[in-house]
Amino acid sequence: MEENPKPAIVGRKLETCELDRAKMSLMNPKVIEEKSSGRTIDDLAVKMIQHTMREGIETVWDRFEMQQPQCKYCSDGLSCSRCAMGPCRIIPEHHRERGVCGADADLIVARNLLDTLTTGAAAHSDHGRDIVETLYKTGIGEAQGYEITDEVKLQKIAAELGVETSGRTKEEIATDVGRSLLYEFGTFKNKVTFADRAPGQTKELWKKAGIVPRSVDREIVEAMHRIHMGVGANYANILLHGLRTALGDGWGGSMMATDISDVMFGTPEINQSKVNLGVLKEDHVNISLHGHNPMLSEMIVRAAGDPEMKALAEKMGAKGINLVGLCCTGNELLMRKGVPMAGNHFNQELVIATGALEAMVVDYQCIFPSLPRTASCFHTKIISTSEKSKIVGSYYFDFHPENAYDTAKAIVRMAVANFPNRVQERVLIPGKPVDLMAGFSVEAIQAALGGTFKPLVDLIASGDIRGAVGIVGCNNPKVKHDFGHVTLAKELIKNDILCVETGCAAVACGKAGLMMPDAAFLAGPGLKGVCNKLGIPPVLHMGSCVDCSRILVLLAELAKTLDVGIDQLPAAGAAPEWYSQKAVSIGSYFVASGVYTVLGVMPKIAGSGNVVELLTTGLNGVVNASFAVEPDPMAAAELIIKHIDGKRKALGI
Question: What pTM did the predictor assign?
Answer without folding.
Answer: 0.96
